[in-house]
Design goal:
Distance between the termini: 140 Å
Pfam families: V-SNARE_C
Strand content: under 5%
Family: Belongs to the GOSR1 family.
Main location: Golgi
Protein name: Golgi SNAP receptor complex member 1
Organism: Meloidogyne enterolobii
CATH topology of the largest domain: Methane Monooxygenase Hydroxylase, Chain G, domain 1
Number of helices: 4
Length: 220
């Protein structure tokens, strides 16, 4: 009986320390947002609860063995103190079990809420990423359409310039053929060009003279 009592007290002390750690875990784990910290907390919680459950089971077995020893003891003198000791150990086991269930349930609910919030946040982030990619895809499509329109305009302009160049080339060729065919026309064209040059030179000389006279007038 005494050996069982010693084992019971040892287990009770160990369970008490584990329950204190479990309550501290409940406080320190509140409000965590880091994913790695949450994962580590979950593993620590599972390990700690398994250890407490194992020790509570052993303590329950020892209490059962003490109850058997108490029932087999025929000494009336030892009945009352042993009964008090046995009842105290049973009360301690009941209190520890109730505290463990309460704390375990609170932490479990907290971890489940955190996991649910994390899942919701992940889904929202994926939705935002999808929306962003959709907008980027639409923007790229708009740029492609605008680029295609600009290329089409450039092709049209190039075709127009090519047509104009071809037309001017044909006109120059036609004029060149006419000047060869009709020398008088060629002479007339040369005279026109010479007269235009002469008129240009005369006009330039008149303008220069006027500017010189104005400059001299202003200087005096």
């Amino acid at each position: 009986m005494e050996d069982l009592q010693r084992k019971a007290r040892l287990l009770e002390n160990e369970i008490d320390m584990r329950l204190i750690s479990l309550n501290k875990f409940h406080i320190s784990n509140a409000g965590q947002t880091d994913i790695q910290s949450k994962s580590h907390s979950r593993r620590s919680f599972d390990s700690l609860t398994s250890e407490i459950e194992s020790k509570l089971s052993k303590l329950s077995e020892i209490n059962f063995q003490m109850q058997e020893c108490f029932d087999k003891d025929k000494s009336v003198f030892n009945k009352t103190p042993q009964q008090h000791i046995l009842r105290r150990h049973q009360d301690i086991l009941r209190d520890y079990s109730a505290e463990f269930r309460r704390t375990h349930e609170n932490i479990k609910n907290q971890l489940q809420r955190d996991e649910l919030m994390e899942m919701t946040s992940t889904v929202n982030n994926r939705c935002r990423t999808t929306d962003y990619l959709t907008r980027e895809n639409e923007s790229i499509s708009d740029c492609d359409r605008l680029l295609n329109d600009q290329i089409s305009i450039a092709m049209s302009v190039r075709e127009g310039l090519y047509s104009q160049s071809s037309g001017l080339g044909a006109i120059n060729k036609r004029v060149h053929q006419l000047t060869k065919k009709y020398p008088a026309l060629n002479n007339l064209m040369n005279k026109i060009r010479m007269k235009k040059r002469k008129d240009t030179l005369i006009l330039a000389a008149v303008i220069s003279s006027c500017l010189i006279f104005i400059f001299i007038y202003l200087m005096h």
